[in-house]
């Protein structure tokens, strides 16, 4: 058994009484899924595949059910991340509240982009959908704690105090060194290798749902080819996705003998 597996077994044995206490609070065991995942994330610094398998066994659900739930929320990190997980909202209200400039400023100051971690392992950066604090736009979460009414000056202060170890929010636990990016690939055990049941014709598990099906094509045609205003991050994503669509359409055409 690997060191990591042994370390997880120790952690699971230590947390089991707390897990049982949490599960007992709910009428249906599967209702305890999110609290259990938060508990493991607090101790591992992210939600490992071992933690997902452990929760599945305890709650009587399949690992796929756990993974599909965990992967839905940006509250859970499925790869080791930096000491400070910076998640800036790119939703509509925040975009109207200058989130585009804030995101560009973070990228410039950190020297990394969406879903990346700085080489020193201190910062991970992600642009996320609405955080449900639209009245305090532009906003973000730092290790899941809210920061409201962002300005570039606040970003400077925040990063300086994090580097100095004086920031008000505690750093994440790091049980493993974070990789440069935390994009998630299937390992054939927890993940089935498929994503987004609504998307048809999507072969690659790294291809986000909606890209490759008819609805996705129509939507991307509107986004990419028509005159729609975007902030930088969204434009970047749309352009990347449109390439994926072109590949899918070409491969579908090849298969159909066109
Ligand atoms: S759009 Fe940013 S919190 Fe809702």
What do these coordinates show?
With 258 residues, the protein is α+β, with helices and mostly antiparallel strands. The chain has nine helices and five strands. β4 and β5 (145-147) form a beta hairpin. Mean pLDDT is 81; it is low at 185-212. Helix content is 46%, strand content 8%. It is globular. The longest helix is centred in the last third of the chain and has 24 residues, at 232-255. It has helices at residues 3-23, 33-44, 49-59, 63-70, 92-96, 99-110, 152-164, 214-225, 232-255; strands spanning 84-89, 116-117, 123-128, 140-142, 145-147. A five-stranded mixed sheet has the order 2-3-1-4-5, covered by helices on one side. The protein starts with a helix and ends with a helix. The protein has three domains: 3-72, Arc Repressor Mutant, subunit A; 84-164, 3-Layer(aba) Sandwich (Glutaredoxin); 197-255, no CATH class. FE2/S2 (inorganic) cluster binds at residues 89, 91-94, 130-134, 137, 139.
């Amino acid at each position: 058994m690997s060191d990591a597996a042994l370390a997880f077994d120790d952690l699971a044995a230590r947390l089991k009484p707390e897990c049982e206490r949490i599960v007992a609070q709910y009428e249906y065991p599967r209702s305890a899924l999110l609290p259990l995942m938060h508990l493991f994330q607090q101790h591992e610094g992210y939600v490992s595949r071992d933690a997902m398998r452990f929760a599945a066994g305890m709650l009587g659900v399949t690992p796929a059910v756990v993974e599909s739930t965990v992967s839905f929320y940006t509250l859970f990190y499925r790869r080791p991340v930096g000491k400070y997980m910076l998640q800036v909202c790119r939703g509509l209200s925040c975009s109207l509240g200058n989130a585009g400039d804030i995101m560009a400023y973070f990228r410039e100051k950190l020297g990394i982009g969406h879903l990346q971690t700085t080489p020193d392992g201190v910062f991970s950066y992600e642009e996320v959908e609405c955080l449900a604090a639209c009245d305090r736009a532009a906003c973000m979460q730092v290790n899941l704690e809210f920061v409201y009414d962002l300005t570039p000056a606040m970003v400077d202060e925040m990063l300086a105090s994090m580097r100095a170890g004086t920031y008000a929010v505690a750093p994440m636990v790091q049980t493993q060194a974070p990789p440069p990016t935390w994009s998630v690939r299937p390992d054939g055990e927890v993940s089935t290798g498929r994503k987004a049941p609504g998307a048809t014709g999507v072969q690659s598990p790294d291809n986000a749902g909606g890209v490759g099906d008819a609805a996705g094509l129509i939507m991307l045609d509107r986004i990419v080819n028509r005159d729609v205003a975007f902030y930088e991050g969204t434009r970047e994503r749309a352009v990347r996705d449109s390439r994926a669509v072109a590949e899918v359409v070409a491969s579908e055409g090849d298969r159909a003998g066109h």
